[in-house]
Amino acid sequence: MLTYGTDQENNFEPRPTPQESEIDREEATMDLQSINWEHHGPGSWLSICSTPGVQWVSAKTGTTRFYEVAQGLVMGWTKKLTLASDTNRERCPEPDVENAWKYVKAYFEDSRASAFGVVQRSNFENRLRVHFQNLNRPDEDVAWYALRNAVYAIGRRVVASVEGTGDFVEIQSESLRFFHNAFSVFSELLFRPSGLMAVQALVVMTSFAELLGSPAIEYMLCASAVRLAQSKGLHRQPSRTWNLPRSEILHRNWVFWAAYYYDKNIALRSGRPSAVDDDEISCEIPHELPAGDESGIEMAVAAIEHARICAKIGKQLLSTRAFNQPPETLFEVMETMENELQMWRDSLPDNLTLRKQNGSLPLRNSYQYKPDILRLHYLHWGSIIALNANFHYPWISSLLARSEPIFEDRMAKISLRAAEASREILSTLKYTELDTSFPSPIVFYFPMLAVINLFIYILKMPKVETVASDLALLDLAAGHFAKIHFLTSSQVSFIFARDVAALASKAVRRASASASLAGPRNTNRSNDFSLDLLSVNLSGSGEPVSPVFASNADFEALDTLSSEFFDSLSAAGDMIIF
């Protein structure tokens, strides 16, 4: 095993030292004043809002309007990354018996969170009956308190969605009270003696945090769930000498793999490190539930298997170490990962795939558009985008590839692949019925990721034949986010898609006018992917402001342009500081 150290023996290697430019970049992200900052890695969907991202978009669109657009997206999103400072620390009343059972029924029968078998229905309901029979006795089991309130929180949202009644603000306020009840014992779950139920509670709380409109604190919740699970050995297959019942082994494994699924997907979405080292896992992926309904097993297992591929993508392509590899090595890894994703997709049964019937789109409300199928569909294409992100984003690819025809051609194909994946996601929006119990990744993250990547592709290739249909997809996405605004009573409101659709249209018109003035030219190979063109021109004078996007540039050089926008948003390299 390779070990880092200062020894010069054969089995030791000097600890990697960051390059000077990387050290400067890290120092630039340190704020000596006490401000709230959030890190998003280079492959994150917010990368476009970093300094180099904003500069590149501004150059391509010929306007500084994107400064304001990016600020609106960042500021709107960061409000949801933490709990409100005035969060009620007092425990709120729990639902009465009738409503409690209604929420529990909705959680197990209609919630997407229950698909992973984290909570066994029979065990939970038996415990709840005992609870209601002993209401006069003090409740000292904090794990049980947290778990049932987390279930209530999700169940309340699902009931409102199924019944189609109530104002979103009121419903969310009520469900948040139950969530805050669970969160009020967060430290006890981690630091007091506990069993498996404490891990269950944290995983269910993570599920709630992923619901549309919930506080987006799932990264920290999930990391806590994973750490607690590992501290209890759930990542290891129980020894036969322990003589555990098979049902208990299955339940332990389901709880761990559910936490794993959330961890790997959250890490990939945010560009942050995972809390799980895959080399330490020995517990088996279960293919049956201990008891009860098993209708969701295929979807859950498929999602877990996909998460294992996400782990490889994050480690081999999006990590700091990966950035130090030559582009040829990264291309090989990308090809391997693409093949794995295709094999995973091909292995899905027909009832879990989103396919066209006789060349036409399936009818609305058909099985292809159920949330679980959408989840797998988006997971696949979202991974394809993540796979190609480093070379699709010009402000990153300029640091990785050289200005040579072979690299330009390869990056053109990579960007086309990212655009194709984006189209696959956006094309489903028109035929998808939304409700407020949908997880945020399905209704917000993946559509937004697709919007951003298709927007980048249009700016790169504003004269390709698909540009008209691509602009139409951006308009469709703008309508999707407008619908979310309506469904959530303005609580989830992002106009980014509408704004970038307008900017993309402007860029296409600008490119068309420029082509008309330039006259006929050789179109055998587009120059839109030439790395030399990454030198930006924001002044409109025809002279580049700075050749900051040359292939040997570092991210610090990208801070040469200043704007009032960055008074409230500091960005350096792959870090976005709020």
Largest sheet: 2 strands, parallel
Distance between the termini: 40 Å
Radius of gyration: 25 Å
Beta-strand residue fraction = under 5%
Listing every helix as H and every strand as E from the N terminus to the C terminus, the arrangement reads EEHHHHHHHHHHHHHHHHHHHEE
Q: Which strands sit side by side, in order, in the main sheet?
A: 1-2
Would you tell me the overall average pLDDT? 80
- The number of E-state strands comes to 4
Please state the structural category. Answer: mainly alpha
Shape: globular
- Summed up, the helix count is 19
Low-confidence stretches: 1-36, 356-369, 522-578
Give the helix proportion (percent range): 40-55%
Please supply descriptive tags for the structure shown above.
two-stranded parallel ribbon, 578 residues, 54% helix, disordered N terminus, 19 helices, mainly alpha, zinc ion binding, single chain, two-stranded antiparallel sheet, disordered C terminus
